[in-house]
Structures are given as structure tokens and as C-alpha cells.
What does this fold into?
Amino acid sequence: MDALLDVLARGELTVRGRIREASNAVLLCTVTHGGVSLDCVYKPVKGERPLWDFPDGNLAQRERAAFLVSEATGWGLVPATVLRDGPYGEGMVQHWIEAAEPAEDDADADDAAQAGGPAGARLLALVDGEEAGEGWKPVALADVGEGRTALLVHADDPRLRRLAVLDAVINNGDRKGGHLLPAPDGRLYGIDHGVSFHTEDKLRTLLWGWAGEPLTDEARAVLASLAALLAEGAPLATRLAELITPVELDAVRGRVADLLRTGEHPRPSGEWPSIPWPPV
It folds into this structure.
């Protein structure tokens, strides 16, 4: 990881194009250093659209903070991310993850659920009826047009479950389906964490399938370790203090403490839309 971060931080950035679907400026680049070339994403701060409820710092800092917390968990759920100068000024640079394609027999989501669980890279599905099916967790009913509804489900996958815990810690306000990247090597990554770390409960996610269920023993151990790493003066706390405000850092500590106290995955608060829009 250190070598990868070194390339991202010190390498020469060459812009190859812009990802048009993004709401903020997102540039696809190549970064080259020491004979190593990598694909990466560069999000300049100048290209960020101001958000009324995130007036402090910038989104790039929050992306870097999410990476640091992810690394502290040991789960490695966020691609390598650095803050650095680039062709359009300071911004976030993140290792590009090429997502695995779903297997051909995953084309019909209903069949995937009825077959007993996800195949290939499929993590989300819409199914008829009110039962999620073996290997899947229900999220919510979705309007699919023409007066029809379908049940939105996600895979009962330990990688997703870890990501749900991370999102609860950083208070991720935008966990969409398109922000889930299953890699060809079997790892799962989450991207786009710019609207995280708010002091108010703004958790919006498609991963509500475990809401109210007990945390795994692994998650409780990770959270206990994270609580120590977030203590005043600890290295992680010191690094986060450079990226988010003191009250936001205290809120992270509070969310970790709450998760350890309840021992459960959080439920939607009811005070904020629980599912992001659009959901993909």
C-alpha cells in the first residue's frame, strides 16, 4: 500500500478524460512515477459543487479521511487515496478500480435471487414478491413503473456487511449501487465518500439489510480497536483532525461508541431519507 500511495502522491498526472456522469469534476488520469504507471481518478477541489450542509473543508478531504478510517479497520474497503496538487490545483487522487462484470447468467436479477443467492459480481437485485430469497437481504419496495413494485435486495455478503459498518462509522450520506466496485480478485471497494463525516445522522445507503441485527464478532473487535485509534492524540485522530473539524471528529468517536454500546447495525433514523437518490 505504501508504494501505491507513493506513486499516487508523487507521480506525474496526465488527464485522459472526464467522467461526465459525476455531479462534480471527476477526471480520469494516468499517474507515473519511478517507472510505474497507474490509472487513477483526480477530483480537483475547484470542481466541487458547494453544498449548504457541508460548509467546512472540502469533499476531497473527506474522501481522504474515509480512506484513512478504512485502512484503520484493516478491511481495505476504500481504494488508495491521497491529497495532492494536480493540473487543476489541489484535489483528491484515488487509484482506479476496474470493476468485475457480472456473470452472464446474472442478467436476470429475479433468477439470481431464486437460484439461492448472488453469482458473479452481482450485489444488488430487484425481485418480485415480498421475500428476498436465500443469500439476499431485503432493503425496500421500489416503484418499477406501470403500477408495479419490486423488492430491492442486496447480497448477504460479508464484504458488504463490513462496508455497512464502515458507512455507519463515517456517516456516509451517499452509498449508491454505482459506488460498489467488486474487483476481479474478489475484493470489494466502496468509492465516493465526499458527503461523509457530518455531525448529524445522514446515513443514506442501499445496505440496510442488516439494520437492527447484531454486529459480527469481527465487527465488534474492529470497532473496539478503532475506538482506541481515535483517542485524543492517537495517530489516526491526529491525521483526521487535519481533514475534518473537531466536532466532526468527536462525532466519529460517538458513532463508534454507539455501535459498541448497542452491538447492532444502525436502523434508519426517520429524520433523513434513508436511501440515496438516484440509487445507482
Notes: The two ends are 29 Å apart (CA to CA).
